[in-house]
Amino acid sequence: MSAEGNSAVGERGVSKRSKGADRGDSHAQERTTDRARERPKKAAAKKPTGATGAARTSRAAGATRTSRAAGAAGTPRAAGATRTSRAAGAAGTPRAAGAPKTARVAKPESRLALVRRARRINRELAEVYPYAHPELDFRNPFELLVATVLSAQTTDLRVNQTTPALFGRYPTPEDLAAAVPEEVEELIRPTGFFRAKTKSIMGLAAALRDDFGGEVPGRLEDLVKLPGVGRKTAFVVLGNAFGVPGITVDTHFMRLARRFRWTESDDPVKIEAEIAEIFPKSDWTMLSHRVIFHGRRICHARKPACGACPITHLCPAYGEGETDPEKARKLLKYEKGGYPGQRLNPPADYPGRPAPPAPGVAPGAVQSPSGAE
């Protein structure tokens, strides 16, 4: 082929390609123009407008927080949100579904507040039980010591019905130390555990005779060395026969001290030490009587009479027992419920009725009133 032919073909090819390119460029420009025209329409369709857009924008800007102003206006909190403003709560904004409930946590009681509340309880119990006293009949330290040992695992009433015959036959430590064990066992059988108790009271009687001249010692360290005598028994004797202050941690005192949140311990020695730090020493003996009186009459172990309790406003355990006033009054015991007390010979200021003697024992056979109190 000649050069001219090549030139002609090349020109025609170039010319065809140029025309195709021109047509392609024209179509591309048209498509670009169309796309440019469509973009504003799509953008306008996607762009939020009015209140709806503002709300969406607000949620997008603060998806995890609800403003106080919005809460106050009643705007519902978003589902799953974990914080709600105080203003929203005040306005009564409903909690969104799925949001966790928050319980009100009570502020821990300070040491000063606990001491003040505890001492106020003691003062108010003093008004409720101005006649609080030891509920064992006795005429001297020896009788109180023996009666307290016998009161373990039984009621004071049962002891008071038993001791008149015991002390009528063995009035002194020397007499009891020389007794026949089987005869003593028979006399104290109603108190339970009579063999172990016979061994204890005869042993302490012998120790008093041999080591203390037949007299009950007035010191804690001496008393706790006697058979069957622990700190509780020793403090009963010291506080009520010798006027030495002491805290008597029996089952009633322990229960109420824990209900009052004075202690969390269940160890009598630790409870005694903790309570001693709350109250002045001069209050210890009467505090013990008042708390024990309250535990026996109102704040029972199984079903406290909360609805008839005069110190509910000071008690953290209110509601553990019967709160209905009418039902609670039926749970009261002794003089608070209109029943006889535990002592056959109670103090003159006791407002209740004396306890009856043991069955088959004539009233004239019981002890004369105690002169040791």
Describe this structure in words.
This protein is mostly helical. It contains 16 helices and no strands. It starts with a helix and ends in a 44-residue tail after the last helix.
Order of helices and strands: HHHHHHHHHHHHHHHH
Enumerate how many helices there are, as a single number. Answer: 16
Termini Cα gap: 150 Å
Extract low-pLDDT stretches: 1-26, 42-93, 366-373
Total strand count, please? Answer: 0
Structural class: mainly alpha
What can be said about the biggest beta sheet?
Answer: none
Strand content: under 5%
* Mean of pLDDT: 81
| Cα gyration radius (Å) | 44 Å
**Helix share of residues?**
40-55%
Q: Indicate the overall shape.
A: globular
Essential attributes:
373 residues; disordered C terminus; disordered N terminus; 0% strand
Topology of this structure?
Elements lengths: L2 H44 L3 H12 L6 H5 L13 H5 L20 H18 L12 H10 L5 H14 L3 H5 L3 H8 L5 H18 L8 H4 L7 H11 L9 H9 L8 H11 L5 H14 L27 H5 L44
Give a short synopsis of this structure.
With 373 residues, the protein is mainly alpha-helical. The radius of gyration is 44 Å and the shape is globular. The protein is 52% helix and 0% strand.
